[in-house]
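Re: that chain you flagged

S.,

Sorry for the slow reply, it's been a week of failed gels. I finally had a moment to sit down with the sequence you sent. For the record, here it is as I used it:
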Amino acid sequence: MLYLTILLLLPALASCKVDPELHMPTPEMIRYMGYQAEEHWVTTPDGYILGMHRIPAGKSGIRTSGPKPVVFLQHGLTDSSATWVMNMPNNSLGFMMADAGFDVWLGNVRGNTYSTNHTSLSPKDAKFWEFTFDEFAAIDLPTMVNFVLKQTGVKTISYFGHSQGTLIAFIEFSKNQELAAKINMYGAMAPVARITHIEGLIKGLNLIEPQLEKLLAVLGIHDFAPSNWFVRELAALLCPLEQAVVCRNIMFLLCGYDLSNLDEERVPIYIAHTPAGTSVRNMLHWAQLLRDGQLQRYDFGSPDENLKHYNSTTPPTYDITGLNIPTALIAGGNDFLADPRDVAWLEGQLNPKIIVENIFYDDYNHLDFVWGNDAYERVYKTAIALAKKYSGV
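Prediction finished late last night. Pasting the structure tokens below so you have them in one place:
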């Protein structure tokens, strides 16, 4: 019915002025705003080819000789590198970090828009999609960080994550001390670990999780919410609608109901690039965290299957108490995914000595940290100052 409605609307909306950014991949979006952009490909030990994007200099285009301080930005759940450059340069963390003198790298985990290649598997193969944030943390994150270090020649980098980008950091930086030693500071925006108070789509998935993966496998469905031509055209068609109600409702499902802090004119661009895809298994893994009330590895659904993978009938839990990096917690009170009660639990797991900033905005929802109209004043100034301090700038 939705497809038919859009087809009927096409003639009436043919004259709509469409923002070219709707159809641009991240590097083109960066160049469109007057910055240099690079695209890099890095292969994980298990064969996934991850797309990484780089803003090597500020808008002036001047590239200094020798290593610059490096900042790594990691997107959240069903998101991509585009999230850091979807607002105007004066309110996008990627651009602002570049203008502040940083060599900016934007990561993409396996299975999203920019990371659907593999040395031997096709996205049409079910096996390609057999991953969750377990693999993002243990394999993708170290692979990307080490690639950035090799490319730039620096010894340490500053890391900022949003949502799932914080989850994988808490997991891996806590247990992989060799990797943690390469991070000079960690900014956790909308920090996520335990999700016992989550609302929205993932809570709904939890109700049907036990049989959902098997059912979707029978139907041949293994990827979740990939960004595609239909989403981009939907965003373009909505450009003359002042309230962009459909766009808003899509984002409500994952993030919360108050989008008043977003730029109305940029909403079609957000929708055109988000969601950027992940695996069904990853979404179900998130639902399992809610079901079992703890931060744990993926549950394969039976004691026998878990035993094959973990030598245990139940999935092992993650211990994040070993985190030993200067850490900034930046959270909101109106966040579906990073509920304040869960953030308080997370804070209690960490050594108080490593928390260098603890910022809380009662009115912020999950998206405000990356797209909020006032994020520059409330979040990004602090982020830039911390990165400068711990990079020795």
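What I noticed first: Residues 1-16, 238-244 have pLDDT under 50 and may be disordered.

Talk soon,
D.
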